[in-house]
Design a protein that fits this description.
The chain is of the alpha/beta class and 228 residues long. The chain has 8 helices and 8 strands. It holds the Pfam family Methyltransf_4.
């Protein structure tokens, strides 16, 4: 039998996140054990099996993908206030996953699904035009120049996210790092399939990372672009 060589390290995808496997509290662990089988989705690297969103949610409804939901408080609030749409959140931080599942149980939310793994691996499994919106709130800014290649908002990632939006669907990014905000804006404006939306008020809930940035005196920047 001929042994197949493993792909070189340079061929592996660049991670846009730190693996975070923190310890769950008893409450979070209980929620995970009870609710993960119904509401959870494990994202496996290299899996390109198409993901059927109506099957995943048990209904056909406009779907929002939230990349990196942190502890999930904002996600749960948005989903509770917006029951007509589905919310698919993805995170790698296990306590955050446990907390969102606990909130799903406490609030009786049926329009939330919780994924664990690499967000861009998940995006590859979605059909073009499948999403109503994509939320990227306070992603890791990777502030050191040598780490900028790890930032989520890169031209290739933006193109893939845009393809998964239906026409008129919105890619909404937020950050508290001014330099990253500038880089985000340049990347989003350079995508030929996106148009910038006016800076009008919106109802995005405040996140833990946003409060932390504001407390440190960093300005909050929201960028909203629609698929043409």
């Amino acid at each position: 039998m001929t042994e197949t060589a493993a792909p070189p390290a340079s061929a592996r995808p660049i991670r846009t996140f730190h693996p975070r496997r923190g310890r769950m509290s008893a409450r979070h662990a209980d929620a995970h054990a009870e609710l993960w089988p119904r509401y959870g989705l494990t994202v496996v690297d290299g899996d390109r099996t198409p993901l059927d969103l109506p099957e995943l949610f048990g209904r056909d409804a406009p779907t929002i993908l939230e990349i990196g939901f942190g502890m999930g408080d904002a996600t749960a609030r948005m989903a509770a206030d917006d029951p007509e749409r589905n919310y698919l959140g993805i995170e790698v931080h296990t306590p955050g996953i446990g907390n969102l599942l606990a909130l799903v149980g406490d609030l009786g939310l049926v329009n939330v699904r919780v994924a664990q793994g690499d967000a861009m691996q998940l995006v590859h499994r979605l059909a073009p035009g499948a999403l109503n919106a994509v939320h990227v709130y306070f992603p890791d800014p990777w502030p050191k120049a040598r780490h900028h290649k790890r930032r989520l908002i890169q031209p290739a990632n933006v193109a893939l996210l845009r393809e998964r939006l239906h026409p008129g669907g919105v890619l909404h990014c937020a950050t508290d790092w001014p330099e990253y905000a500038e880089a985000m804006a340049e990347t989003l404006e350079a995508d030929p399939g996106l148009r910038r939306l006016p800076a009008t008020p919106h109802n995005r809930p405040e996140t833990k990372f946003e409060r932390r940035g504001a407390a440190a005196g960093r300005p909050i920047t929201d960028l909203r672009f629609a698929r043409i």
